[in-house]
Amino acid sequence: MNLYTPTGIAELMNEFGFSFSKKYGQNFLINEAVVQKIADSSFESAKGEKKACLEIGPGIGSLTSKLAQKYDLVRSVEIDDRLIPILAKTLAPYENTAVINSDFLQVDLKKLFEEQFSGYSVSVCANLPYYITSQIIMQLLESGCRFDSLVLMVQKEAAQRLISSPGKAEYGSIAAAVSYYAKASKLFDVQAGSFMPRPNVTSSVLRLVPYETKPVTPKNEELFLKMIRAAFSQRRKTLLNSLNSFFSSEYSKDRLEAFIAAAGIDPQRRGETLTLAELKALSDAFE
Ligand code: SAM
User: Fold this and answer.
1) If you take atom 3 of ligand 1, which residue's CA is the nearest one?
2) From the CA of 26, how far away is ligand 1's center (Å)?
3) Is the distance from CB of 217 to CB of 248 less than 8 angstroms?
4) Can you say whether the dihedral through the CA atoms of 33, 36, 41, 44 is positive or negative?
């Protein structure tokens, strides 16, 4: 059983009557060197004595088995019921693995930590389903759970949006929110030929290392995160107009202008040029 060749995967699929689901973003990695590099990159940033890995979307277990050879414990969350019997076969040699058959977006991460990872330091490693990349990343970062790092494969364009900085064309609410929680960097690109079926796009592997101390300390974190969404809600509009359309039911335009002035920001700036420190000053002014 070779999980890293088109023939090996086709044999496994035939045996289980499996076909790829577009709905679940199923593009499986077939390049063993790339899979190894992702697992190595994840393990490099793992700390602690007992190391565990949380994987989202194991597919047929190609990355899972490499992770299992490095980590003490691997837990993988897979939504597609049809993959569960396949994973039972491909992961049978790895007693330190277990698969949780669930939609990751519905998983209570705090509970998962208590039940599965007690006494372990946890890293996240995944070739993410591209249709919910941002939701998964925000769920992980906002969970309050402590991760050593998140090594994630995403679409190249999504990667650019995730690690962009103020003033750049791709900078948006997701990059601002990510930069509040973690230091994000791109590790390498992966060409479409490394997947089966072959996607239309190039992919990138990112590493996110959550901050122990966040770069800014807003008075009200919930309001700060809302402010990020508000500032970026209307691209290419002025900050005042973006905030006005977001908060119209709560504040008059004059009050919003006063908040912006109190934060020491020019109301004619575009929301997408604001740094984290300015977003914090703005949300503090609302307080
Ligand atoms: N890790 C495998 C690999 O690299 O070959 C598969 C990666 S594939 C891009 C994405 C995987 O995520 C698929 O196995 C898919 O079924 C699974 N998936 C999609 N949506 C999911 C969700 N909401 N929760 C958990 N798994 C999901």
Assistant:
1) 28
2) 6
3) no
4) negative
Place of tokens 């396949």: 86
* Average pLDDT of span 273-278: 94
pLDDT by residue (tens digit) across 65-110?
Answer: 999 999 999 999 999 999 999 999 999 999 999 999 999 999 999 9
Q: Which residues of 29-40 are buried (b: 16+ CB within 10 A; e: fewer)?
A: bbbeebbebbbe
The atom number, within ligand 1, closest to the CA of 24 reads 19
C-alpha of residue 127 to centroid of ligand 1, in Å: 7
Q: Which of 134, 147, 142, 143 is nearest to 55 (CA)?
A: 147
Q: Of all protein residues, whose CA lies closest to atom 6 belonging to ligand 1? A: 59
pLDDT tens for residues 129-187? 999 999 999 999 999 999 999 999 999 999 999 999 988 989 999 999 999 999 999 99
Ligand 1 center–CA 114 separation, angstroms: 23
